[in-house]
Design a protein that fits this description.
Shape: globular
Mean pLDDT: 97
Radius of gyration: 18 Å
Order of helices and strands: EHEHEHEHEHHEHEHEHHHH
Number of strands: 8
Distance between the termini: 36 Å
Low-confidence stretches: none
Strand content: 5-15%
Largest sheet: 8 strands, parallel
Helix content: 40-55%
Structural class: alpha/beta
Strand order of the largest sheet: 1-8-7-6-5-4-3-2
Length: 306
């Protein structure tokens, strides 16, 4: 039987960590990993959108994952997103991830060219074959990848015994229900959009992977606890507060992940650098909003945490 319990809960998407020269910082990666261990989250999702994966080299991504695994020391479930925009590099990252002992690998579909579904399935299955002893998670994010996971493609992928479920970041919450019903027992569907964390959980997601969890993990952990306890009014109150914070973080000139890293420096003392071009860096005028969002997080934690 598959051990899916290790995937059920709050799994922050890991942020890219850079030094002053813009290179991946092993020290930053390890510090962020220890932070997540201390916060008590279920695990981390490494090398996805929040990790700026499409702007990193294969070597950058290897260094990041190696240092996550070193600092996690078995205390976190680790899902490594290994997709590149070609099969060769993706398989290399899959093999590397399995050699480090990650719990699962994940992959978006290939982007830019609109491939037929049989080619997408072959791409995913080739990646999975590179890590034959490791669980595989399909990453469905059609608004960015340009292609959606259809029910027919999902059915084809379930013929691969390593496939354990879907990280669903499509906006319709109903997609979670459809994937959950189609797969049945033995699979897990992760909620992707952070703004509908409790909605996804109610309709069938048993875990969540999100890009803003890391800047306020305590609030998502408390929401998760309330959902599990059936205290939906309390969960909804926190969701509304979290959404206001997310809207604030998205209201600046710079990229949201730059805002998040700046907030983590304010609130947690973490030095994670900026974002990699072509993502937009923060401007001086953005810093007032960063400080405001940082305070909103502190205030929400004071108001809603037990």
């Amino acid at each position: 039987m598959r051990n899916l319990d290790k995937y059920k809960g709050v799994i922050p998407a890991f942020y890219a960590c850079y030094d002053n020269e813009g290179n991946v910082s092993p020290e930053g990666v390890q510090a962020l990993t220890r932070y997540f261990v201390e916060k008590g989250v279920k695990g981390v999702y490494v090398g996805g959108s929040s990790g700026e994966c499409i702007y990193q080299s294969v070597e950058d991504r290897k260094i990041t994952l190696e240092n996550v695994m070193k600092a996690a020391d078995g205390k976190l479930t680790v899902i490594a997103h290994v997709a590149c925009n070609n099969t060769k590099d993706s398989v290399e990252l899959a093999k590397h991830a399995e050699s480090l002992g990650v719990d699962a690998i994940a992959a978006i579909p290939p982007i830019y060219f609109h491939l037929p579904e049989y080619a997408i399935a072959e791409y995913w299955n080739d990646i999975s074959a590179g890590a034959p002893n490791t669980d595989f998670v399909i990453y469905n994010i059609p608004q960015l990848a340009g292609v959606a996971l259809t029910m027919n493609l999902f059915a084809e992928m379930r013929r691969n015994p390593n496939v354990i479920g879907v990280k669903n970041s499509s906006m319709p919450v109903q997609d979670i229900q459809m994937f959950r019903q189609a797969a049945g027992e033995g699979y897990i569907i992760f909620n992707g959009p952070d703004e509908q964390f409790i909605s996804g959980r109610v309709i069938g997601a048993e875990g969540g992977i999100g890009g803003t969890y890391g800047v306020m993990p305590e609030l998502f952990l408390q929401m998760d606890a309330y959902v599990r306890a059936g205290e939906m009014e309390k969960a909804r109150e926190i969701q509304y507060a979290v959404n206001e914070i997310i809207y604030k973080m998205c209201s600046v000139h710079g990229n949201m992940y730059g805002v998040i890293k700046a907030i983590l420096k304010f609130n947690e003392g973490l030095e994670l650098g900026g974002v990699r071009k072509p993502l937009a860096a923060l401007t001086d005028s953005d810093m007032a909003v960063v400080e405001e969002a940082a305070k909103m997080i502190r205030d929400a934690k004071a108001a809603y945490l037990k």
